[in-house]
Write a structure and sequence with these properties.
The mean pLDDT is about 95. By secondary structure, the protein is an alpha/beta fold. Strands 4-10-9-8-7-5-6 form a seven-stranded mixed β-sheet, with helices on both faces. Strands 1-2-3-13 form a four-stranded mixed β-sheet. The protein folds into two domains: about 170 residues, Alpha-Beta Complex (Aspartate Aminotransferase, domain 1), CATH 3.90.1150; about 240 residues, Aspartate Aminotransferase, domain 2 (3-Layer(aba) Sandwich), CATH 3.40.640. The chain contains 13 helices and 13 strands. The chain is globular and about 65 Å long.
């Protein structure tokens, strides 16, 4: 099968060269070109609506990255945006004191999230994770942290070590998802001084298969936290408001001490939250300092309130799961049909295709070729990050994307299975 024709992304690449003179790397972190397929993916978007996004050159894509997770409903969701515009026009959003909509959103989260008895609002998941660790250390009087999963870019958990003194990470230890023994070994050595165990309840390692909890794993982590007197935190920044309205803790029936939420809660507006048991959360009243000029800005609160309204009224998650289950089943069929080393993982709201590692490292070339053929068919998926199904993905969008995936797998089969 012939490869698909390359897209014209010249304006995006020209803008990239301008950006490199203005911002280190032009764009930051995971949005940099090397996290896609360089020269094939656009670097800048101009606009989006529903599940579609348009780049600087006018190419329109069906988007499965959903802004790395915040877009649960769709881009430019009118009801959400109108609620925000009304807040700006009628009341304003940035003051010396907090607007009472904060309390209304906190009440909503406490009603929805199983572990939530109190809430602190922030603007990012990284800030929420860092606050949860600080609260845990204050509450327990201990200092060591056991972590599993990605928890942001702050010093205690950053996977890139530049500019971070070793002593700022010397009390943080990583354990393996679905491997209780790895956590037990760490706790046998450090348990008496362990303040926190923080874990993503659905595992999503970079460029690797999505992992769901094996029977008893999350329960076992909670039991170990109790045994050693550590605060258990579920990092639900990705799973919250997607796996279930109350997060993975609701879906899997395991309740932590603290939980982190953000991303999909406000359909693209910047928000993060630490929620949890009152006794522990009370540390942030006087013993733990948390403050920001912009944490109390109310636009994200208003957006979150309206997003939750829509989720409940339109049964959004039921719709996403139904579409996602059908999509995931078809992915399995396609990967079984074309023997190219592709692997399907994930759950219906968060599917993914990766490639089996091999000694010759052909999997890297296959990955690049697969995602190159997809982007050329205007299906926007990320090689190193799982995908998302959003509410505005239609059956037609999903069918087109599945056909594009099949075409891409056919291409790999013809190229590599000669």
């Amino acid at each position: 099968m012939e490869e698909k024709p390359k897209l014209n992304i010249s304006k995006s690449l020209e803008e990239l060269e301008k950006g490199r003179k203005l911002t280190p790397g032009a764009v930051l972190g995971i949005r940099r070109p090397y996290n896609f397929v360089e020269g094939e993916y656009p670097v800048y978007f101009e606009e989006g609506k529903g599940c579609r996004i348009t780049d600087l050159d006018g190419n329109e894509y069906i988007d499965f990255l959903c802004a790395y997770g915040p877009i649960l409903l769709g881009y430019r969701e009118e009801e959400v945006d109108e609620a925000v515009v009304r807040q700006i026009r009628d009341k304003g959003f940035c003051f010396s004191l907090t607007q009472s909509v904060q309390n209304r959103l906190a009440e909503r989260l406490i009603d929805i999230i199983p572990s939530a008895e109190m809430v602190v609002f922030l603007k990012t998941g990284s800030a929420a994770a860092t606050l949860a660790v600080r609260i845990s250390r204050s509450y327990t009087g201990k200092k060591k942290v056991m972590r599993c999963g990605y928890h942001g870019w702050h010093y205690w958990c950053s996977e890139v070590k530049g500019g971070i003194p070793e002593k700022l990470q010397e009390d943080v230890f990583e354990f393996e998802y679905n491997n209780l023994e790895s956590l037990e070994k760490l706790l046998e050595e450090h348990g008496d001084d362990t303040a926190a165990i923080i874990i993503t309840p659905v595992g999503h390692p970079t460029a690797d298969k999505i992992q769901t909890p094996e029977p008893g794993f999350l329960e076992g982590v909670k039991e170990l936290a109790r045994k050693y007197g550590a605060v258990l935190t579920f990092d639900e920044i990705r799973t919250g408001f997607r796996v279930a309205l109350g997060g993975a803790q609701e879906y899997y029936g395991v309740e932590p001490d603290l939980s982190l939420f953000g991303k999909a809660m406000a359909n693209g507006y910047a928000i993060g939250a630490v929620t949890g048991k009152e006794e522990i959360m009370k540390e942030a009243e006087s013993h733990v300092f948390v403050s920001s000029t912009f944490f109390p800005n109310s636009l994200s609160f208003v957006a979150a309130m309206k997003t939750i309204d829509i989720i409940e009224e339109k049964k959004v998650l039921k719709d996403i799961w139904a579409k996602g289950e059908k999509f995931l089943n078809r992915l399995h069929e396609l990967v079984d049909k074309y023997d190219v080393g592709a692997e399907v993982s994930g759950i219906p709201p968060m599917p993914y295709i990766t490639f089996k590692r091999d000694a010759e490292k052909l999997y890297k070339s296959k990955r690049d070729d697969f995602y190159t053929q997809l982007i050329r068919q205007k299906v926007f998926m990320q090689p190193y990050h799982h995908w998302y199904i959003c509410y505005r993905h239609t059956e037609e969008d999903l069918e087109y994307s599945l056909n594009a995936i099949e075409e891409s797998l056919k291409y790999l089969q013809d190229k590599y299975n000669k």
